[in-house]
């Protein structure tokens, strides 16, 4: 039989092992600071920004001072930094999604681009010695740049652009405006950010007032072509759904439908098609060119909106960059609905 001392010795060893495991886990999630990674105690200084991990779980991180070496893996963040006069903080960014609007073109062309088109390698990131990474949510997964906590442990901040979180139903109010506010606070330019946001809010309010004055509310599908008669239809998990609603339309697609054949598209009978146009190389096709290309697909010729050419083309970047460009798309779509009624 096991003696009393042997039984207690085993229990003691087990307890010590459990305590060691708890310490390892705690340090992994607290960066060794005895508090959740990114959070700060009340008596600490710095700038605390509430954000997310790649799964949309809330995270926060303390910046001792405004970032001065920023790597951007999402063109919408690059454009916002330009809007706020912060382009000199960028040490590396990715190529834009097609041709940039004139207000960004010259400045963006002078920015240093990372070697890889859209997601730099971890080695590239470390070589540039950033103090902040800004990008898509899916860039911070094991297959790409890794979890945000890994960068926190290196004392490198991560800001995931809110519009890229595929969770719930994003709106301009829940994604674009907080993105602007966070950037203003993080870089200590809150006045610039507030002024920029106020301009956007006024433009949105003007569209809202115009929409409220009309009774026409078209049924819509939001379509993107992938070539060879394959398409995706945007659902409520994308910001463009909110833009269409604000413009006075009703999205017939209640969930995301990705890369399907024409038969899935023909299951809908929209009054209007909002057609998200994709750039060809560095060139963004004009609305007329994009619509002409869609009309060439013989598989869709019997769709009512196609026959009547009730199509509104908007650039991919306008509806997917998660910044002030969404208001450009809102105005374009609202004007298109007005013309089609």
TrEMBL record:
InterPro entries assigned: ABC_Transporter_SBP, ABC_transptr_periplasmic_BD
UniProt domain Fe/B12 periplasmic-binding: residue ranges: 69-341
Transmembrane segments: none
Pfam families given in the database record: Peripla_BP_2
Domain of life: Bacteria
Family: Belongs to the bacterial solute-binding protein 8 family.
UniProt name for this protein: Corrinoid ABC transporter substrate-binding protein
Organism of this sequence: Veillonella ratti
